Amino acid sequence: MQRVGIFGGSFNPIHVGHLRAAEEVREAFALDRILFVPAALPPHKVRHQLARPEQRLAMVQRAIAGNPFFRASDLELHRGGRSYSIDTLRALRQRFPKWKLFFILGSDAFAEIHTWREYEHLFELCDFVVVARPGVRVRSLRSLLPVATRKCFWYARDSLALVHRSGHKVWFQQITGLDVSATSIRQAVSRGRSIRYLVPPAVERYILQHGLYRRRAFHP
Predict the structure, then answer these.
(1) What angle do CA 177, 169, 131 make, to 5 degrees?
(2) How far lies 192's CA from each of 67, 187, 206, 207, 210, in Å?
(3) In whole angstroms, what is the distance from residue 100 CA to residue 120 CA?
(4) What pLDDT, on a 0 to 100 scale, did the predictor assign at position 151?
(5) Where are the domains of the chain?
(6) 141 near 107, Cβ under 8 Å?
(7) Would the CA dihedral through 14, 15, 19, 22 be positive or negative?
């Protein structure tokens, strides 16, 4: 059974923080591969700040080129419309029933999971790997579970994980703290500042060549 990480997001743009988090999760969980799945239209993002879906996919492809463990998926782009994780996970489970899936997300996103479509069913489809941001205490993350679902979890005795009644687990992974965000990168580009070393060189070239994020529409 292949162990496959699913790393979704707007990737607007993808940056070194995404890549380092994915690499550390891959190593910690012995994943055979990680799929980067750019959202066509993220439900929780402001649309006018987004590069086009095909541009964000192109940046992901350039960022992960040369890494045999990383793959880019256009699943959500082909589906079109608003991108919901529940639809993506169901599609992957149907298409690849022998894969063991690990859904990768940050602790900030996990704290808002109660706002996601059919969030209570997400835990029935895969394991979760919650990437703990700098300053977040791992043992306090249980409080981030939606109140309505806490009764469905218990702590695993042999690991720092929460076990869902379906048998899937929510794992917590501390990562190297890189203070990088897509928002700060877009702001830097819009102000004519360098983004070197915040994104891979191929992504920086793509952003500059295509004139992405030049509008001064981003506020602190």
Answers:
(1) 10
(2) 30, 9, 15, 12, 14
(3) 19
(4) 85
(5) 3-178
(6) yes
(7) negative
Q: Give the global pTM.
A: 0.91
Report the pLDDT averaged over residues 81-109.
Answer: 95
State whether the Cα torsion 20-128-94-116 is positive or negative: negative
CATH 3.40.50.620 fits domain 3-178: yes
**What is the distance between the alpha carbons of residues 220 and 209, in angstroms, rounded to a whole number?**
25
> Tell me: the pLDDT tens digits for 134-155?
666 655 556 778 887 888 888 8
Q: Are 40 and 79 in contact (CB under 8 A)?
A: yes
Neighbour-count burial of 106, counting CB atoms closer than 10 A to its CB (0-12 exposed, 13-18 middle, 19+ buried): middle
State how far the Cα of 62 lies from the Cα of 88, in Å rounded to an integer: 23
* Matching residue, tokens 């996970």: 89
